[in-house]
From TrEMBL:
[4Fe-4S] cluster binds at C188, C195, C198, C204. PROSITE patterns: ENDONUCLEASE_III_2 (PS01155). Its EC number is 4.2.99.18. The keyword Metal-binding applies. The keyword Metal-binding applies. Keywords: 4Fe-4S, DNA damage, DNA repair, DNA-binding, Endonuclease, Glycosidase, Hydrolase, Iron, Iron-sulfur, Lyase, Metal-binding, Nuclease. The lineage of its organism: Bacteria, Bacillati, Bacillota, Bacilli, Bacillales. Its cofactor is [4Fe-4S] cluster. It comes from Paenibacillus eucommiae. This is Endonuclease III. It catalyses: 2'-deoxyribonucleotide-(2'-deoxyribose 5'-phosphate)-2'-deoxyribonucleotide-DNA = a 3'-end 2'-deoxyribonucleotide-(2,3-dehydro-2,3-deoxyribose 5'-phosphate)-DNA + a 5'-end 5'-phospho-2'-deoxyribonucleoside-DNA + H(+). Signal peptide: none annotated. PANTHER family: A/G-SPECIFIC ADENINE GLYCOSYLASE/ENDONUCLEASE III, ENDONUCLEASE III.
Length: 228
């Protein structure tokens, strides 16, 4: 895709969602890490409901280790995969105490070594908590990138991330990540995307395919009316 087309996409999303931001509630990098860990295969809305009480009960890594695993499981049971996530939270907290004196490391390399923290989570943390430019590719970013032709349908999450990093100016990586999420969450949804109202329809192969049946139906209806 030409740089001019990429710039057009970024500018339109900027106009649509100028205030796009991380919607996971947190007050420090450690809480953000826990929230992103919990958000895997779960909506931010549900995570925020759970962390409202979770972050009041647990402030530091040692707090999560001071209770039995079963108690932590109950505290997050509304979250998908809560048992596995509870285990990872306690393992993560133990590693923070053993290796980092209870402090969250600030490098991507160190973060991905933490239990339950993958590349996406590390990207979210370094960009939102530590101001390091990064593009975290979640389900929304991946879907939007592929629909708009910024990445191929068969591209892996890592390939999508690399392509976006090449096309988007580095100082816009973090903001682009947020805007793609907002665009995918509130406009270009997995089901029933708002193609008829989309200002990026001309750039979207998927949208054009979805609109063809509608155009064909209108043409058929018009033909039927004329023939009567």
């Amino acid at each position: 895709m030409k740089q001019k087309q990429v710039r057009h996409i970024l500018d339109i999303m900027g106009e649509m969602f100028p205030d796009a931001h991380c919607e996971l509630n947190h007050s420090n990098p450690f809480e953000l890490t826990i929230a992103v860990l919990l958000s895997a295969q779960c909506t931010d809305e549900t995570v925020n409901k759970v962390t409202q009480s979770l972050f009041q009960k647990y402030k530091l890594p040692q707090d999560y280790l001071s209770v039995p695993l079963e108690e932590l499981e109950q505290d997050i049971r509304r979250i998908g995969l809560f048992r596995n996530k509870a285990k990872n939270i306690q393992k993560l907290c133990q590693l923070l105490l053993d290796k980092y004196d209870g402090q969250l490391p600030q490098t991507h390399e160190a973060l991905v070594e933490l239990p339950g923290v993958g590349r996406k989570t590390a990207n979210v943390v370094v960009s939102n908590a530590f101001g390091v430019p990064a593009i975290a590719v979640d389900t929304h970013v991946e879907r939007v990138s592929k629909r708009l032709g910024l990445a191929g349908w068969d591209d892996s999450v890592l390939e999508v991330e690399k392509k976006l990093m090449r096309m988007v100016p580095e100082d816009e990586w973090t903001l682009t990540h947020h805007r793609f999420i907002f665009f995918g969450r509130y406009h270009c949804k997995a089901q029933n995307p708002q193609c008829p109202l989309c200002p990026l329809l001309e750039s979207c192969k998927e949208g054009k395919k979805r609109m063809k049946p509608a155009v064909s139906r209108k043409a058929s209806s018009k033909k039927e009316i004329l023939e009567k």
